[in-house]
Amino acid sequence: MKYLHILLVCFSLVLLNGHVALAQEEINQDVKVVKEYTPTVSDAYKVNFMPVLADSSYTKPQFNYRILSTSVATNYQPTPIAAAKINTSRKEYLHKSYLKGGVGNYSTILAELGYNILENEKYLLGLNAGHVTSLGSITLEDDNSVDAPFHDTWAIADFKHFFDDKTLSVDMRFDHNMYEYYGYQTLKGDDAYWLPNGELASGYQFIPDVEQRLSQFQATVGLSNNVVDERKMRYQAYAGINTFGNLTGVNQFGVKLGGKLYQPIGDLALDLNGGIESYKTSVPDSIGPMYTFDERSQLLISVNPSVAFNFDRARLKVGLLVAGLIDSEGDEFYLTPDVMGELTVVEGIVTVYGGINGRVNANDYATMLYENAFASADVNVRSSVYGLNLLAGIKGNFSSSTSFSAGIEYGIFNNEHFWVNKTYTTPEEGVDPLNVLHYSNMFDVVYDDGELLTVKGELLYKPKQTMEFLLRGAYYGWNLDSQEKAWHKPEVELGLEGNVNIVENLYVNAGISYYGERWAYDVTSDAGIKQLKGIVDVNLGAEYYFSKQWSFWASVNNMTAAKYYKWNGYPMQGLNAKAGVIFSF
Length: 585
Prior knowledge:
Layout lengths: L1 H12 L19 E2 L23 E2 L37 E8 L3 E10 L5 E12 L2 E3 L5 E3 L2 E13 L3 E15 L11 E3 L5 E3 L8 E15 L8 E13 L4 E15 L2 E15 L13 E15 L3 E14 L2 E17 L3 E12 L3 H7 L12 E16 L2 E24 L11 E28 L2 E14 L11 E12 L2 E10 L2 E4 L7 E4 L2 E11 L4 E8 L7 E3 L2 E2 L4 E9 L1
Antiparallel strand pairs: 1-2, 3-4, 3-32, 4-5, 5-8, 6-7, 8-9, 9-12, 10-11, 12-13, 13-14, 14-15, 15-16, 16-17, 17-18, 18-19, 19-20, 20-21, 21-22, 22-23, 23-24, 24-25, 25-28, 26-27, 28-29, 29-32, 30-31
């Protein structure tokens, strides 16, 4: 079956000229909203990605969990490669501000406000705030219909001050998310369940209040020098804080510091990256038998020095990553190589690359809750380590209208996390109580070591300025030491997206994605596993520019009304239609 999945990925990637490109960031967010005009400043060490399905007049709000019907979430991560000279041109009127509103089925209401200062040569300021509410109901796997409301609110401020030789930046963001634990569970309030100490407790004591709330504030200050000459030193430094809390009473405070120094010396270059991340979690005293809270503190210190050798048609970086993780559950030290080589086979056409590296993923409490909003409030938090990653790939351009990239990566990891429903046991006459298991609609994590093989690719085709298409595919092969499956992780992801200027002032975007089958841990089945079927997701959106100030938009997600479960027991909304108006001023 795995070989069949690999063949499916490869076949989809050769549909357009037989080449693919490494994926960019997730394109699975929901409602498109008109974006403020943001002038760019030359940054000699800015990471660029290719292919780029860019849309300079659109951005999308970040929803942290998936109740809204939307294009399916993927596991893509951007891979830094050469910049593509491709960027969709849209009709763009440089107004300082805009107001967007819309409505949809599932009693969905959305609004967004953006404000920008554009003209000043010394600084830029962008403000963005919005809210989305949905009050619809969803049918669970037992055919019961339940309310699944949510309310997302966000506010963002980005500020840049340009000095003669440096740039000061300040970025702030606030998120407030309200939702309910609406998922299916076999846990019953009237039944009794065993506590760890051997006593029995009512099931009501294990069922949380239906409402939950997440709130987070982030602020980062950065400083970098303005250097265009590649022969001169470049630096970048940042400092930030993060505060997080939920309705249960768990709070987290985080601090991060870091920077980068790049010093060319002839054909060599010295590169030094480093950072510190610190998180401390405080918890309520006790909330009955449902939760077992532990205060946690984590400190991650990392240093990544390297030397780059530059040749006419090649580049070689040799370095290492040194990291120390100081945790309330124990301290660990990591040392991994960081070697990457790149060879230009045909200038501007084909480049091959390969290397070996490692990384440490510092998983803090807030990150885990925003990854899975239905996680138990006492979820354990550990950092995962990919101590050895082997990677290789190819990238380039067939022409000015076609870019491609394809890559393969093999990694060995420790302490990767996988989501499973919390389980409980109940006594039954004549039956071993350990054999009568039930699960909750809250999630816990299990950790495992293993190996991951990743094959990814993308192809970007832009036949003309007002039309572009992106074909993408990925295969994930998990080999775990203890767990039977990589719970809630897909093996295959395929997708095709496009943006087209149909006629003057009318822009259409469409996409079709396949999200492969996944597996959930199910203690109520004899096999202990449940298949979450793969789905085909079709989306369509359009915007019409009526005048310089007014435009109208509409979108339809999940046009096939597929029943998709991102998490076991939690179906997402079916066919979802929204429409609205945008006023620029």
